[in-house]
Amino acid sequence: RDTRARRREAGSSPSDAYLVVEDDCQFLPGFSEGLLASRLSHVPDDWELVFLGGQDLLHRQHEYQVGEGVRRLYKGFRETTAYLINEAGAKACLEVSVPMHWQIDTHLNDESLREGLRPPRPDETDYTMRPRGYCLWPPLVEQERKAFKTDVQKVEHD
């Protein structure tokens, strides 16, 4: 059956948020439902995707601060350890990921690479417009790297 029909039967709405947590997610000390709610209260209302943590590979995310402890996603952000997503965000994520040239976190955050490797266009910005995403900083989660040496599955069904 259609996912939207099942959602309606369950009484959920398009604005509902869904928490996605990967198996290698480690909640940082002090994490609580109250802390998460407090941090999320600073996220702009137009959000479609909110990462609870991640990596700032280009070390420029501080340039995209939009609220207390909230930063807009930009092309240097990576990781999908834990995030909130709503219906509009799920739809946007699917739309920007086909065809897939890179790992999913690259497609979600770096609009310049969605068409494969190419020179930047003159009107391109570094921040991500679709999906409309933010991340919490400092993070509430991190990728657990001791028990999980890699997050890339090398063998089917391992």
Automatic annotation (TrEMBL):
Domain of life: Eukaryota
Protein name, entry field: Glycosyl transferase 64 domain-containing protein
Organism (species): Alexandrium catenella (Red tide dinoflagellate)
